């Protein structure tokens, strides 16, 4: 027990992004993991510095893809995300556009919807508290307001606050966060946040089909209890694992998401389910299934982000974009027929 107590003294109570560690945080396990991860991070940082050679511009390539899968050091993350997602190119093509959006026409409904969610966004993060200086709530409000004006078909939807919040913590830039949000909502996750959320509903069904093929026993359990996938995974998709998996793990997932697109979400979801298949199959009721799907997003398997990221590229087996596109077409058609 002594080592847990001393780990609690050595590991900061607030993480590098400003989040307070939860009450039940396992300091000893985290310290053990982080001591090995720090060695990996240092090695990756040296490799990235050599690759970038002082440039802040990154373009997609086989080497960059390999490097991203092994993790992007925090100091390079913003420029890598901007480069591989196409956000940098959009920002370069539209100088001053973000600031013009902020000066745009008033929309009280949009402003009120965003304002309502401000205090609910990361209450456990000291940088988002009203007492913080600067308080990131204002930055977050601006990014979401500008995006709502830019993409009026979407406006503002709950869940976007968490995503924009993470973007701000990583980029420390309003304008870059805006263009990265545009890359995600406009291109990488089409139709996730539109009023009908058809893209989101479709992808939840696609996950169900992938589970049916790759993990049929889990699909049979879900069917047997009449559990819809949206009941257990909707927040995984809407929040892109924010507030579900540990921060560092989420950022490692996003490294790949910006570069390789939405199939990464399916890889993560399938890995979580496959790794805990036996545990999920012990469920005896709908409530039990829901609880177990919450449980599988906690613990050392997801905290140890480096091993976890290696697993998402091996555990689910082959998963081509062509397969996902085909499944999306059939699932979307089914949903539209139902509605």
> Can you tell me the number of structural domains?
3
- The CATH architecture term of the largest domain is Orthogonal Bundle
Residue share in helix: 55-70%
| CATH fold field value of the largest domain | Cyclin A, domain 1
Strand content: under 5%
Unreliable segments of 5+ consecutive residues: none
Number of strands: 0
- Write down the CATH class of the largest domain: Mainly Alpha
Please give the alpha-carbon distance between the first and last residues. 56 Å
The 3D shape can be described as globular
| CATH level-4 homologous superfamily of the largest domain | Ypt/Rab-GAP domain of gyp1p, domain 3
Structural class: mainly alpha
Described by strand count, sense and barrel closure, the largest sheet is: none
The average pLDDT score comes to 94
Query: What is the N-to-C order of secondary-structure elements (H for helix, E for strand)?
Result: HHHHHHHHHHHHHHHHHHHH
Rg over alpha carbons? 20 Å
User: Count the helices. How many?
Assistant: 20
Organism: Callorhinus ursinus
Domain Rab-GAP TBC: 71-261
Keywords: GTPase activation
Pfam families: RabGAP-TBC
How does the SSE layout of this entry go?
Elements: H1 2-10, H2 27-52, H3 62-69, H4 74-85, H5 87-93, H6 97-102, H7 108-118, H8 136-150, H9 160-171, H10 174-188, H11 198-214, H12 216-224, H13 229-238, H14 247-260, H15 263-275, H16 277-281, H17 286-295, H18 300-303, H19 305-312, H20 321-338
Helix pairs in contact: 1-2, 4-10, 4-14, 5-10, 7-8, 8-9, 8-10, 9-10, 11-12, 11-13, 11-20, 14-15, 14-19
InterPro entries: Rab-GAP-TBC_dom (IPR000195), Rab-GAP_TBC_sf (IPR035969), Rab_GAP_TBC_domain (IPR050302)
Keywords: GTPase activation
GO molecular function, one term: small GTPase binding
């Amino acid at each position: 027990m002594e080592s847990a107590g001393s780990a609690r003294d050595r590991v900061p109570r607030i993480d590098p992004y400003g989040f307070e560690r939860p009450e039940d945080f396992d300091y000893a396990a985290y310290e053990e993991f982080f001591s090995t991860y720090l060695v990996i991070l240092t090695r990756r940082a040296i490799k990235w510095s050599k690759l970038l050679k002082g440039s802040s511009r990154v373009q997609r390539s086989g080497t960059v893809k390999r490097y991203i899968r092994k993790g992007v050091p925090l100091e390079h993350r913003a420029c890598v995300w901007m480069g591989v997602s196409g956000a940098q190119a959009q920002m370069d093509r539209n100088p001053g556009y973000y600031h013009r959006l902020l000066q745009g026409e008033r929309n009280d409904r949009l402003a009120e919807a965003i304002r309502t969610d401000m205090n609910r966004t990361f209450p456990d993060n000291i940088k988002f508290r009203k007492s913080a200086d600067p308080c990131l709530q204002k930055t977050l409000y601006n990014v979401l307001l500008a995006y709502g004006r830019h993409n009026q078909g979407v406006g503002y939807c709950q869940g976007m606050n968490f995503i924009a919040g993470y973007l701000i913590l990583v980029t420390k830039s309003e304008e870059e966060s805006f263009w990265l949000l545009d890359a995600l909502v406009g291109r990488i996750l089409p139709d996730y946040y539109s009023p009908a959320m058809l893209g989101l509903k479709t992808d939840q069904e696609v996950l169900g089909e992938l589970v049916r093929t790759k993990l049929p026993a889990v699909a049979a359990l879900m069917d047997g209890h009449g559990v819809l996938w949206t009941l257990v995974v909707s927040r995984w998709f809407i929040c892109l694992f924010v507030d579900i998996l540990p921060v560092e793990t989420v950022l490692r997932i996003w490294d790949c998401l910006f570069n390789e697109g939405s199939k990464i979400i399916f890889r993560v979801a399938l890995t979580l389910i496959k790794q805990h298949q036996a545990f999920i199959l012990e469920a005896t009721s709908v409530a039990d299934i829901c609880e177990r799907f919450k449980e599988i997003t906690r613990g050392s398997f997801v905290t140890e982000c480096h091993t976890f990221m290696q697993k998402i590229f091996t555990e689910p087996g082959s998963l081509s974009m062509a397969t996902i596109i085909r499944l999306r077409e059939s699932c979307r058609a089914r949903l539209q027929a139902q509605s």
